[in-house]
Design brief:
The complex is a heterodimer of chains A (88) and B (202). Chain A is α+β, with helices and mostly antiparallel strands. Chain A is 25% helix and 36% strand. The longest helix of chain A is centred in the N-terminal third of the chain and has 13 residues. The mean pLDDT of chain A is 90. About 7% of the residues of chain B have low confidence. By secondary structure, chain B is α/β, with parallel strands linked by helices. Chain B has two domains: 70 residues, Translation Initiation Factor IF3, CATH 3.30.110.40; 113 residues, Hypothetical Protein Ychn, Chain: A. The chains are: A alpha+beta (88), B alpha/beta (202). Chains A and B meet through helix 1 and strand 2 of A and helix 3 of B.
């Protein structure tokens, strides 16, 4: 398996996740709506996965108050397993 | 006994129905069906395969296809029956998707849940044997589908992605298919009938 890196956004609730998805699509960020990974427990069921290259943009939107999220993680998947890091 | 059926100009699944009738009527011989499109050609091939009958496909000068299905007897010796290995624990379910929304309720929520569901399927093994899409469900297998990527991944892994041709046609999406194959009610029912583990998501 090749190494894959993503950003994972979690939210306070489903409505927030859906709003964030619409917002990010408008900002032309490639998103994928996924069930929140089981190793991130305390959040709503839906999360948004983005490419690792867009993490900085997410931070900007968050700092600018345009994007509401609960947490932002980076996720590395490789043959050795999953490495989850909390960024925000 | 050999017979020719001219099924040009007939819409799916008519050619298969006509061929099926003739095959059932004869003990042995060759039924040749002439069709004018690739979908009918493929459906006839699939039909022959499902009966484990030998068949051949030829294309003529005008772009028509002649599908000849050979039934028993004569100098034709049936190939030894393939024995499918039983891997019960490994066998994935059949997933049936009649809608592009998951559950009834809010439209936007239904869309998001469906995306999340298909993603989860693509991340979970064993993969399903097949996924059937009909009615609004076919909006998930077209090029503009929000889950196209996941379905392509599943398709490449050997999962049969089957869209109802009648439905694609009804919604004017026949040229927009982005993944898998087009099929008819025979295949849909066959898949359901064969499966001992069917999950319907709508």
């Amino acid at each position: 398996m090749e190494k894959k890196e993503y950003g994972i956004l979690t939210f306070e609730g489903t409505q927030h996740a859906m709003k964030a998805e619409a917002y990010l699509i408008k900002k032309e960020i490639k998103t994928k709506t996924i069930p929140t990974p089981r190793d991130i427990t305390l959040s709503c069921g839906l999360a948004i996965r983005i490419g690792i290259e867009d993490i900085e943009k997410i931070k900007e939107f968050y700092d600018g108050g345009e994007l509401k999220l609960k947490n932002l993680y980076s996720l590395k998947e490789s043959t050795e397993g999953r490495l989850l890091k909390k960024i925000l | 006994m050999n017979k020719k059926i001219d099924a040009r100009g007939l819409a799916c699944p008519k050619p298969v129905i006509l061929t099926k009738k003739e095959i059932e009527n004869i003990k042995e011989g060759t039924i040749t069906t002439i069709v004018d499109n690739e979908i009918s050609r493929d459906n006839l091939s699939k039909f022959a395969k499902s009966l484990e009958l030998e068949f051949k496909v030829e294309e003529d000068m005008d772009g028509n296809f002649e599908v000849s299905i050979i039934k028993g007897g004569g100098d034709y010796s049936p190939s030894p029956k393939k024995v499918k290995p039983l891997e019960k624990s490994e066998e994935g379910p059949l997933i049936v998707i009649p809608s592009d929304l998951m559950g009834t309720g809010d439209f936007q929520l239904g869309k998001v849940l469906m995306k999340s569901f298909i993603y989860t399927v693509s991340e979970t093994k064993p993969y399903p044997k097949a996924i059937l899409f009909y009615n609004n469900g076919v909006k998930l297998t077209v090029k503009t589908s929000p889950v196209l990527e996941d379905l392509i991944l599943l398709d490449k892994a050997g999962v049969e992605i089957i869209s109802c041709g009648t439905c694609l046609d009804f919604y004017n999406l026949k040229d927009e298919l982005g993944v898998g194959e087009i099929s008819n009610m025979y295949t849909i029912y066959e898949k359901m009938k064969e499966s001992h583990n069917t999950i319907t998501i709508g």
